[in-house]
Write a structure and sequence with these properties.
Elements lengths: L2 H27 L10 H38 L14 H21 L26
GO cellular component, one term: plasma membrane
Membrane topology: Multi-pass membrane protein
Subcellular location: Cell junction, Tight junction; Cell membrane
């Protein structure tokens, strides 16, 4: 196969692996899971790490799809003996790839926004108990 196809294939495999590990790390960092429950700051940092993995996965997908689209564009406008109706054009897979890369990077950036503010990083979060006094109605 051509070099650009092999490169795109390698970038997509790397993107899949990064996305898989991003899912695992993000699930561990969610507030609804019991792993690492004693420190909410650590959980939010784990969620941010998952978001970074998703952003990297989206960038790899974007690079792979754009590399292939650039090669298709180059081949289309290059003067050759191949008739115009037999040349490659953008297909739906390229548009789906761009959409998937955009949504993956958007999801990763939303996970990165779950980092706690600086003034609350050192504080521990405690639940307040309800007052035990009963009210009397007259």
């Amino acid at each position: 196969l051509a070099v650009h196809i092999q490169t795109s294939r390698a970038l997509m495999v790397i993107s899949l692996l990064l996305g898989f590990f991003g899912i695992i790390v993000s699930v561990v960092g969610m507030k609804c899971t019991k792993v690492g429950e004693e420190d909410p700051v650590t959980k939010s940092r784990i969620a941010v790490a998952g978001g970074v993995l998703f952003i990297l996965s989206g960038l790899c997908t974007l690079a792979a799809v754009s590399l292939y689209a650039t090669q298709v564009t180059y081949e289309f406008f290059r003067e050759s003996t191949v008739p115009v109706n037999a040349r490659y054009e953008f297909g739906s897979a390229l548009f789906i790839g761009w959409g998937a890369a955009s949504l993956t990077m958007l999801g990763g950036s939303l996970l990165c926004c779950s980092c706690p503010p600086k003034e609350r990083r050192g504080q521990q979060y405690y639940r307040q108990s309800q007052p035990s006094t009963a009210r009397e109605y007259v």
